[in-house]
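> @MW can you paste both from yesterday?
MW: sure, first one:
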Amino acid sequence: MRSAEARRWWALGALALSVLVVGLDLTVLNLALPTLAADLHASTGDLQWFVDAYSLVLAAALLPAGLLGDRFGRKRLLTGALVVFGAASLACAYSGSAAELIASRALLGLAAAVILPLSLAVIPVLFTAAEMPRAIALVGGATFVGFPIGPILGGWLLDHFWWGSVFLINVPLVAAALIAVTTLMPESRSERRPRLDVPGVLLSSCGLAALTYGFIKAGENGWSNATAVATMAAGAVALVSFVRWERRVARRRSGYPLVDLTLFRSASFTWGTALSTMVSFALFGILFGIPQYFQDVRGLDAQSSGLRLLPLIGGLAAGLAIGQRLQTPAKVPAGSPAGKPMVNAKVLVTIGFAVMAAALAIGAGTTVTSGTGFGATWFAVTGLGLGIAMPTALNAALGALSPERSGSGSALITALRQVGGTIGVAVLGTIIDSAYRSGLTASGLTLRGLPAAAAAAARGSVAGGVAAARAADSAPLLQAVRVSYVHGMDVMLWVCGGIALASALLGLAFLPRWARPPAPVTAPDAPADAPRDVATAE
């Protein structure tokens, strides 16, 4: 009996390690962006795709991955995803061009889309209701561990080895997780296999891809560019068609919609999800722009850049601790109804986002000569507000889910957050790029004296501008490039601050004080042959 119990917790450790690998990969790449821009001759659009190829495929595949796990077995699918993640990490490390790296990152995102939801989906099979909070906390916390480890480890690797080493660190971790999952985890699947909503998968994937591609093209060629406008419009039409199709499938007694749209009947779910998506939009943009500021403007190496991101993580940890303490229900005598949290969700979310907005407004005053202490301060305060607001918004959304909807609801929340992050990188990246180019023009300097390739590189990214200025031995051009990038970053931070302020106001206006479940589901929304979990020991 004791051996079986230990086996379950060791299996949970394998799940946590799998999730850690996914979280680690996000942080490491942001530090490597300036190096990739130089070594692979990548433009700002390429840099955006290095991030977006991963997060877009991850978001698009999260929902069908849950259904595939129910149908074919969660252990089987998770094992295959770990193998693919390891192989894709090797492909990323040895990519010889921007196109190869983008394709390999997309494959990484596909594997991650399976790992994330299935790592949570097997917990109810392995653990009792009393054990689940501890199990979920361990797996969920593993994602946050990747953030402080990523900058330090990734920075050290970038300073001592070539950029491909930041992907190779995934391989031993994936191998350890693969062995543990294979030997320790029982297989589990739905008793009655659900059918995959193929039209829903195609519509959602195509819509998200087209929308994001349109944003990136708009940043490269202008918002009036015909291709950008057409692809954004096509993406919007596909997503509207997706929603209409899901409603149609839900009305069928034997249908299995990819998304349970009735979840949005709950204000807690709707606004908790919306607010967490908005903050993901802003956060991913910040993590895209700040490393380039440290390395290309401040001239720091990768490891030093990673260390300067730690105040954000420290503030986040403090915010998490404060938020969790304020959300912990007061103790009540045995037999009494459960107590309510010390501070309700509406107040906590508003405070957290307001703190974040104030910190970002201060950060928007960054200059080329700003000191490390200034950056560390607003980073830490931003993290503090984020740590209070983000988990509270997520708890509001998750608390509105009934047990039979927890799997699909969690996947939907995760998918929307990933979409927010993807579009955040695209939109905020274009804001930086546009302001950077405008700054170069306003500086009064021209690039006509440079070779055509160098001038194009200077206009394409701050890394290209720094390289062109140094090759031409032009101190005025180097200063103009750095000032222009900081100007673009400050504009982006103002936008992020505005998003945080809007989130605070929306939370105050619409988020319920306590989570409320959605309205009961009628028969057409709950097919008679709905899937049920079964587990088989191996």
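MW: second:
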Amino acid sequence: MRIALAQINPTVGDIAGNCRKIIDFAARARQEGARLAVFPELALVGYPPKDLLLKPQFIDDNLAALEHLAARSVGIDLVVGYADRNRQPVGRPLHNAAALLRDGKVVSRHFKTLLPTYDVFDETRYFEPGPEDEANDIVRIADVRMGLSICEDLWNDERLMPRRLYHENPIADLHGAGAQVLINSSASPFVLGKHTFRLELFAAQVRRFGKPLIYVNQVGGNDELVFDGNSVVLDSTGNVIAQARDFEEDLLVVDLAIDGTGTEARASRVETPSGGIESVYRALVLGLRDYVRKCGFRSVVLGLSGGIDSALTAAIAVAALGKDNVVGVSMPSRFSSDHSVADARSLAENLGIRFHIVPIRPIHQTCEETLGPLFTRDASCVAHPSPLGDDLTEQNLQARIRGVLLMAFSNRYNHLLLTTGNKSEVATGYCTLYGDMCGGLGVISDVPKTMVYQLAELVNRKAGREIIPRNTIVKPPSAELRPNQTDQDSLPPYDILDAILNRYVEEEKSAAEIIREGFDAATVMKVIKLIDRSEYKRRQAAPGIKVTSRAFGFGRRMPIAQNYQQIIP
């Protein structure tokens, strides 16, 4: 029996568009002789739909679309993810569901058992778990008993998970109910290194139960999340025998061999998945492209300072959208070095993008002349006044002027404004509210500074020439908001900062644990204080593309007004 893995890129909320895409992929699968086509989790509504699920009309529309799909399921069976109503009088109002469609009808409905509530997931806000009797999730297709599961249902192998979050293992239950083949519809977001762990986990489950696995994952960017696809088929010994492309839509077809000794999957097309820094780059490109497209924009604008962060962001934008849809603006002040403007111009020429120079010195001077007398007169009202030009006020004025100008470009030409701050800056608050934080998307806001350099080198290697100027990569990073400024005037060296940041934010280690690993105690406490005190800024920041295991955003929910004092022995 031939099965098609339909790895599609749905748009959240676009039920009609998603329905058309499912019909198109189903027709292609039927033309390739498939008896069954499997689609991702919640494919009809897109993942994650969040509070759209609270709108009754939204649920009605998705159920009507399911019936429309069922009517088109002639000549091929379809497994399609959707949101169903909970028909029981008690419990949350919905189920995260998958339906088997056959010969114009909805043959059966199957509900997700394990509902994640960690990191970016909040499924128990909306969904009621399915019944514990997994025999209900066994379907017969061409006399093969197939066990249907949804995403998280596959992620509870007690031998691989450091701490199991759930008491039951739906895959073990499907095996006990007589499944010959395991099918999993998924919407599993990208995180650096995650696919390697997926394969390890899936292989362990397959080897334990001796059943082939068909895993179909969503692909594409939806808000902060990027879904990498990487749909895969494992034979009953845990070997990968079919692998879809990553970071793009794909239709992968595999044959099941059925005989008296059991059911086995035959080798098919095996794509090589991206890994390491290449996978991060591809995730950022896809995430930006889909965010722009799905939000209704066609072009972007960003400030080009001559620094590495804006250079990398511009290069990613060109890869995602094409050079004709990217605009760079250099806004030099009296503190800007000549090489910064030259580096920004060289980058724009290398990328082939439109480039404007808008000096901010006249506007900055006007602000100083306007505010200077007021701040001088009011000096007695503050404890430690500083002359305008010597303190953070002066620096933030420049950043905010630039934000005003970039927003003007955005408004005038309907460009989406991209912020260019990296994770190290966002973590420590080394950024200006309503200044360099202005924008609609933080492309590299989950990319630590040390990884920014790796990505910059990758951009040049991929092009086979210098895209990001060498001087941009090798010069000391600087905000250039005062004379002879470098980032390390305010922050530890980035290799040390990022190491502490990884331990404190991603690994949730305490200050004492980090210090015991050999880091300077004063540096650790300074970094932790900066991270904790900058939460109010991050709450007002543009959404950013998630590529690490613990990104700032809706997956990390920290209080703003808090005073947790870490005790250092």
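> thanks! The CA atoms of residues 242 and 270 lie 5 Å apart.
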